[in-house]
């Protein structure tokens, strides 16, 4: 099997990580493209001592680590100067490795040992880095959250996680129409949306309706993430895979709010 064939199944999830790390589909996908270009240009430099997925993320980490922060900010300026300014201000107050360690463990499911390899620290430092990231992000952000989810148990679980993080829940919707109505009645600062809803309506369509009225960060929840991580069209920046871990939802919420200019500091 060629290296390309070995890496192909992991590319959607690398896009998920890159988008969450950068807070942007276009910016995250750009780093993934740069990673693939580097591998194609010098396949002999691809890590051989680890499995392909770990080698792929390691190569991405090298590309990300070598990028100039100011150049990256300029690339995303067209996506919203105010939001970018807020994101950069928050970045200045948090070590990049902390954010990476949190996303790699909670969202991507890497072990502490693998995460240590990816961010180039000792394994016993990973837990400390993750703790620092959660403490700093939770201290910085709070929001009012609309949940769009038609499965009661899952909705209750998400609501508990949201409240445990110190956020408020504006409502729980099970259909597209109900979601839009709740959003118009009480504008949320964050939306968590399932893809398939109770009446066969779409969470994606509900979000499109909401975004046509006002801007709000969105996290999609789906059992089929590969369908929304192709890099071939406008796709979600933040995505959670069903079934999910509580830590995954917490990391996604924290990271989505990290890049939101409207977020109010807690405390």
UniProtKB/TrEMBL annotation:
Where, per the database record, does this protein carry 4-aspartylphosphate? 194
Gene source species: Hephaestia caeni
Stored NCBIfam families: PRK09191.1 (NF006623)
Q: Where is the Response regulatory domain?
A: 144-257
Q: Name one GO cellular component term.
A: DNA-directed RNA polymerase complex
Q: GO terms for biological process?
A: phosphorelay signal transduction system
Per UniProt, which keywords does this protein have?
DNA-directed RNA polymerase, Phosphoprotein, Transcription
Record's keyword annotation contains Transcription: yes
Looking up SMART domains in the UniProt record yields: REC
Write one Pfam family the protein is assigned to.
Answer: PhyR_sigma-like
Task: State the protein's name.
Answer: DNA-directed RNA polymerase specialized sigma24 family protein
The keyword Ion transport is annotated on this UniProt entry: no
């Amino acid at each position: 099997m060629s290296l390309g064939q070995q890496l192909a199944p992991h590319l959607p999830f690398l896009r998920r990580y890159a988008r969450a790390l950068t807070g942007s589909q276009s910016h995250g996908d750009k780093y993934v493209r740069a990673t693939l270009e580097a591998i194609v240009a010098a396949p002999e430099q691809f890590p051989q001592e680890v499995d392909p997925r770990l080698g792929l993320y390691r190569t991405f980490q090298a590309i990300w680590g070598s990028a100039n922060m100011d150049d990256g900010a300029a690339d995303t300026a067209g996506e919203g100067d105010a939001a970018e300014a807020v994101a950069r201000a928050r970045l200045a107050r948090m070590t990049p490795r902390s954010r990476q360690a949190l996303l790699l463990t909670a969202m991507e499911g890497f072990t502490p040992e693998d995460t240590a390899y990816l961010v180039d620290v000792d394994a016993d430092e990973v837990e400390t880095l993750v703790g620092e990231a959660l403490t700093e992000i939770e201290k910085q952000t709070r929001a009012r959250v609309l949940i769009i989810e038609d499965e009661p148990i899952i909705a209750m679980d998400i609501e508990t996680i949201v409240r445990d993080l110190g956020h408020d829940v504006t409502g729980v919707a099970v259909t597209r129409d109900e979601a839009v109505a709740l959003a118009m009645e009480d504008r949320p600062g964050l939306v968590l949306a399932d893809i398939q809803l109770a009446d066969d309506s779409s969470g994606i369509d509900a979000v499109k309706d909401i975004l046509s009225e006002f801007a709000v960060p969105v996290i999609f929840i789906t059992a089929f993430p590969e369908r929304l991580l192709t890099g071939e069209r406008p796709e979600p920046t933040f995505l959670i895979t069903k079934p999910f871990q509580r830590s995954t939802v917490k990391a996604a919420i924290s990271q989505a709010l990290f890049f939101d200019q409207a977020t109010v500091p807690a405390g």
